[in-house]
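hey
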């Protein structure tokens, strides 16, 4: 099995975790060959401690020049973990060099930028994955769930992180549950009613959105990055089934009703336990690597990331309209 050369662009908080996962996949034929960060001196100190021998470059151009000169292996795939405003420029530079990408969520800063990435990847026949990590944790539970979703309720609450404040809480946190909701409900959205408010930053720090789908399903999603405790709850009420996921604890509760059984006491079954995916980021990166190796679509594609971004932008638009009306 030929080795795949991987790089991480944006060696900050998330980039460090991506680098760790690539290093842990050495037995799967992956080699971390480079790290890129604009603050290269600080990145070099961190890399020397955690990833000895892995070179650090100040830009994608420097990395590609080193590969062209034979100083490092030519990268096959990369994680883009820069701030969101740089996703478009960095990703296009990498894809023009023929490199497959896993781009951290949100896929891009705007829908227009996201479309450019998806279109370029399609034309270049490159794998483009979106870092919607929660889908990898929830996918098994979703597959086992029977019945059409009727009502979905999500709460994603965090203490103030002092990072990712370049984007609002909708693109930072809510987009995870938007992606899960879209993966579960196979129907166009009929209407969105949203409200959100800036509290500790100039951006929206807490938001709630209610979605109504054309098939009658309703979803209510709340996201906050100014809460006291950390909560990651996703609940789905379906015809003949109920699923409760605690994505923070990695546990689930599921109830199924046998529609053929007339005795209600016998018809309802219950199952609880731990989600099988303990390290969702490692699973996400492994899925991306296999998608590149097998030339298939990843679990969460660029198109999936774009769709979640499109819905998030509609939420942001409604939030801004309501904020403007209160001034």
């Amino acid at each position: 099995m030929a080795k795949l050369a991987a790089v991480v662009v944006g060696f900050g908080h998330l980039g460090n975790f991506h680098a760790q996962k690539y290093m842990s996949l050495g037995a799967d034929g992956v080699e971390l060959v480079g790290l890129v960060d604009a603050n290269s001196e600080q990145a070099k100190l961190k890399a020397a401690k955690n990833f000895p021998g892995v070179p650090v470059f100040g830009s994608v151009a420097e990395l590609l020049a080193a590969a062209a000169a034979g100083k490092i292996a030519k990268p096959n795939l990369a994680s883009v973990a820069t701030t969101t405003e740089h996703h478009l420029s960095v990703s296009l530079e990498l894809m023009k060099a023929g490199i497959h990408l896993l781009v951290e969520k949100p896929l891009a800063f705007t829908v227009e930028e996201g479309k450019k990435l998806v279109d370029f990847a399609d034309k270049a026949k490159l794998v483009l994955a979106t870092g919607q990590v929660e889908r990898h944790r929830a996918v098994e539970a979703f597959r086992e769930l029977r019945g059409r979703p009727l009502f979905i309720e999500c709460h994603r609450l965090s203490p103030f992180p002092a990072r990712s404040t370049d984007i609002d809480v909708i693109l930072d946190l809510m987009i995870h549950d938007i992606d899960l909701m879209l993966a579960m409900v196979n129907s166009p959205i009929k209407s969105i009613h949203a409200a959100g408010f800036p509290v500790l930053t100039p951006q929206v720090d807490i938001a709630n959105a209610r979605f109504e789908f054309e098939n009658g399903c309703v979803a209510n999603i709340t996201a906050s990055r100014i809460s006291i405790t950390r909560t990651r709850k996703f609940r789905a009420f379906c015809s003949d089934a109920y699923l409760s996921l605690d994505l923070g604890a990695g546990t689930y509760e599921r109830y199924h009703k046998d529609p053929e059984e007339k005795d209600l006491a016998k018809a309802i079954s219950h199952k609880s336990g731990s989600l099988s995916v303990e390290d969702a980021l490692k699973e996400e990166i492994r899925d991306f690597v296999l998608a590149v190796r097998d030339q298939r679509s990843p679990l969460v594609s660029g198109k999936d990331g774009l769709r979640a971004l499109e819905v998030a932008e509609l939420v942001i638009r409604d939030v801004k309209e309501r904020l403007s009306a209160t001034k």
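The chain has two domains: 4-132+281-300, 134-277+311-326. The two ends are 61 Å apart (CA to CA).
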